[in-house]
């Protein structure tokens, strides 16, 4: 996949920052004469307000969070080791702040005192969080292709390459939205929280992989935390080649296990096939698969372990 120009990320970040700032401030301006002072800023698990602060604090707090959301992207996007997370994090947090700002003002509007503010249920917070996650997920594929990647040349000793699954990101966002809407309709707050945690945790593992090649062998790390991992020691590898991966051929996206082959399919396109001496091969979709396969074969050749390599792209 071709990398979008860097200004694409700047446009996305700037437009999102401006819109979320306007949405954060707008309710305070529109309701400036309709709010008590102090206002309710915290609600208990039953939805009853149980904490207050002066109006200026109510506005200053979300503005500070909005600034904190974008400061890392503004200052670290060219230097961070994993800069791909900076743009989605800024988008997601700023959307969440804007949603909470609206909920806070709406609950306090026309209240005589902060104790008279309207109730805010846990479901409202979950909806705001889901909106933030969906907004962040929508920018993840773009952010990945804007972040620095391993050079295509063979000068470095180790090779690392990240891959995102656009299909799984969209599936996760849609699932979360459906769960939240179902929870709102049914009022089953604990059910919504439980499903969000389970679905979110499972999908977070599968939406991104990091493929690494070094002197120890071949490693596939899952998710944003690099865990769990699938390792193939160099001494177990016969050779590596590139393959044309079509998800339907492997039974779909995700972690697919067949009789003599394991496939980690995040998208259609080229991937690396690691052929092992045990007979169970590993296929992983990854950008610049030819470079990764060449790195594996170079290490095998250097140690005298390289077996026959089929140089053609195989499907």
Provide a descriptive summary of the structure in words.
The protein is α+β, with helices and mostly antiparallel strands and 315 residues long. It has two domains: 1-147, no CATH class; 155-315, PH-domain like (Roll). 47% of the residues lie in helices and 21% in strands. The protein has seven helices and eleven strands. Strands 7-10-11-9-8 form a five-stranded mixed beta sheet, covered by helices on one side. Strand 10 and strand 11 (281-285) form a beta hairpin. The longest helix has 25 residues, at 6-30. The chain is elongated, with a radius of gyration of 24 Å. The protein starts with 5 loop residues before the first helix and ends in a 13-residue tail after the last helix.
């Amino acid at each position: 996949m071709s990398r979008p120009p860097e200004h694409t990320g700047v446009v996305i970040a700037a437009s999102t920052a401006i819109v979320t700032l306007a949405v954060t401030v707008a309710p305070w301006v529109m309701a400036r004469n309709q709010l008590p002072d102090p206002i309710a800023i915290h609600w208990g698990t039953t939805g009853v307000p149980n904490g207050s602060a002066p109006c200026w604090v109510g506005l200053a707090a979300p503005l500070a969070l909005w600034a904190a959301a974008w400061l890392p992207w503004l200052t670290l996007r060219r230097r961070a080791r994993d800069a791909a997370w900076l743009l989605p994090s800024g988008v997601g947090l700023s959307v969440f702040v804007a949603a909470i700002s609206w909920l806070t003002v709406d609950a306090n509007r026309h209240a005589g005192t902060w104790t008279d503010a309207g109730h805010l249920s846990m479901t409202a917070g979950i909806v705001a969080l889901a909106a933030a996650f969906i907004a962040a997920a929508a920018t993840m594929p773009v952010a990945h292709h804007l972040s620095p990647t391993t050079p295509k040349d063979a000068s470095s000793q180790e090779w690392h390459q990240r891959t995102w699954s656009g299909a799984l990101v969209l599936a996760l966002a849609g699932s979360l939205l459906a769960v939240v809407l179902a929870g709102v309709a049914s009022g089953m707050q604990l059910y919504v929280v439980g499903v969000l945690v389970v679905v979110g945790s499972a999908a977070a593992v599968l939406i991104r992989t990091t493929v690494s090649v070094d002197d120890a062998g071949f490693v596939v790390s899952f998710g944003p935390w690099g865990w769990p991992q699938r390792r193939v020691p160099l001494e177990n590898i016969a050779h590596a080649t590139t393959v044309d991966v079509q998800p339907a051929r492997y039974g779909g996206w995700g972690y697919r296990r067949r009789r003599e082959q394991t496939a980690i399919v995040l998208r259609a396109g080229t991937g690396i096939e690691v052929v092992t001496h045990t007979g169970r091969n590993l296929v992983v979709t990854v950008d610049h698969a030819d470079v990764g396969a060449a790195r594996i074969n170079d290490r095998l050749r250097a140690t005298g372990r390289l077996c026959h390599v089929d140089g053609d792209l195989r499907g």
